[in-house]
Amino acid sequence: MDLEEIAARLGVPVAEVDRVHRLAGDRPSAPLPAKADAPAILDRLGVRSDDAAEIMAGWPDPDSPLWTPELRWLLDRSIALVRADLGGHDWLPPGPELQRDHGPAWRHLYVYAFLALVDTVRGYHRDHGIADEVSWSTLADLGRNLAVDRRMRGEGWPVMQSWLTLHARGGLYELGRLQHQRGTTIGLHIPDAGPLTPAAVEASLDEARAFFPRHFPDEHYAEFSCGSWLLDPQLLEYLPADSNIVRFQRRFELDAYEEPEGIDADVEVLRFVFRSLTTPLDQLQCRTVLQRAIVDHLQAGRHWRWRRGTFPV
Which residues, in sequence order, are CB contacts of 194 under 8 Å at separation 6+? Predict the structure, then answer.
């Protein structure tokens, strides 16, 4: 098949298939784990039983009728694309967004790519002296994101499939309450993993202060950074001064505001706080002060802002 035929059969633009072809080139792919080992691996990756059952049902067996030649091509080249950037720490879409209602092979293709890269990235971790505990804790974000996507009825995955390539290349590490991304600064991300208490945040920052000099001694970091709607000062209009979010905000010196390219803060707020992008505002259930603030702000015709800030390591 040529690229145009692959694109037509996948129902995606030719340019997106061409991008995968160019970035993957003739670089080697990586094999999936043995099917018999997959359930134990999925469990270690925090994948819920319902998601694991779907993944196993769509497994890319050589004789599976679910796996058409174009799907097998995309899986192989997406793995090669991500593997070629092992050690990278920028966002990297692994391939085009697929029509996920076509069945488990379509729905979970990039999950299979992630699984194929687990041994590769764990080898990268071992080469940098990173403990197994940190490796598995970091990679288990797969299960967390699949659970969120299920709750969002598939609305969340187009972002998540790119997000998870950070984990699969050794670009991001979960250290306690926060995730820490390598780059020009240590980029902070806040997973949906319990209260964002000052004590938990400080413990995570302390862990990072020791982690990066130990495991990446050639990388020198002077600042932590974060880009998030959580840093929007408008939240101060609604939240008490002693709330965890406000206390997290106070750590940062904000950059001057610029409209971020490709990020709609209103969408990101709804994605994170309500796990829905399609529920009308007047039908969202508000059980917390934050949830009520989000809805009141939007119903008043106002918008949230994505802000970036830093503070010294």
Answer: 177, 200
